Amino acid sequence: MVDRGTEAQKYVWEGAIALQIHLHESEVTTLPPPSPALILAPRIGYLPLLVPQIKPFFSSSLPPGVDTVWFEYKGLPLKWYLPTGVLFDLLCAEPERPWNLTAAYVINGNCKNIMNMSQSDQVELWNSVVNGNLESFIRVSSKLKFGIGGDEFSDKLSSLKSPQSAAETDHTGSVKTGGKRKPIALRFPI
């Protein structure tokens, strides 16, 4: 039993999101294209943990030699280091059921926060997610400093959440934001 956990933490920890994952059209090597994969993903899990389920599903339609996957939503590459539930909550103003994602087999990323952790903390954090150990996750993740701001992901996120109207743009076509961008810190209550 988790002493410091709350009902809300347990609810989120045990929560899941229905995903419908489509293979990116540039990856399809067969006709007809494969049907989408339907997966129930843990909110606290990470999209790369779904690859062992997805790759066999699409294997007959993939080009030879592919082994890494990245995911996107409405053309926005998804950050692989953010939990699935956080991505869903940030990107779906009106939640889709199931959430439609696209899988492609090319990857670029930055793991600076994790790489700055000690080796033992990295292992403990990973094992807490894989094994569903909330207490261990809270203890190790409190050492991380997550932040979003000033990058392409944030720009695309803003455009997905608040569609532009003609009144919100000036004569050059630039969007008026009405203020400075502020970083968002993800904190896990203890």
Automatic annotation (TrEMBL):
<dbReference type="InterPro" id="IPR048939">
    <property type="entry name" value="ATG5_UblA"/>
</dbReference>
<dbReference type="GO" id="GO:0006995">
    <property type="term" value="P:cellular response to nitrogen starvation"/>
</dbReference>
<dbReference type="GO" id="GO:0034274">
    <property type="term" value="C:Atg12-Atg5-Atg16 complex"/>
</dbReference>
<dbReference type="GO" id="GO:0061908">
    <property type="term" value="C:phagophore"/>
</dbReference>
<dbReference type="GO" id="GO:0034045">
    <property type="term" value="C:phagophore assembly site membrane"/>
</dbReference>
<dbReference type="GO" id="GO:0000422">
    <property type="term" value="P:autophagy of mitochondrion"/>
</dbReference>
<dbReference type="InterPro" id="IPR042527">
    <property type="entry name" value="Atg5_UblA_dom_sf"/>
</dbReference>
<dbReference type="GO" id="GO:0019776">
    <property type="term" value="F:Atg8-family ligase activity"/>
</dbReference>
<dbReference type="InterPro" id="IPR042526">
    <property type="entry name" value="Atg5_HR"/>
</dbReference>
<protein>
    <submittedName>
        <fullName>Autophagy protein Apg5 family</fullName>
    </submittedName>
</protein>
<dbReference type="InterPro" id="IPR007239">
    <property type="entry name" value="Atg5"/>
</dbReference>
<dbReference type="Pfam" id="PF20638">
    <property type="entry name" value="ATG5_UblA"/>
</dbReference>
<dbReference type="GO" id="GO:0034727">
    <property type="term" value="P:piecemeal microautophagy of the nucleus"/>
</dbReference>
<feature type="domain" description="Autophagy protein ATG5 UblA">
    <location>
        <begin position="12"/>
        <end position="103"/>
    </location>
</feature>
<dbReference type="GO" id="GO:0044233">
    <property type="term" value="C:mitochondria-associated endoplasmic reticulum membrane contact site"/>
</dbReference>
<dbReference type="GO" id="GO:0005776">
    <property type="term" value="C:autophagosome"/>
</dbReference>
<feature type="region of interest" description="Disordered">
    <location>
        <begin position="159"/>
        <end position="180"/>
    </location>
</feature>
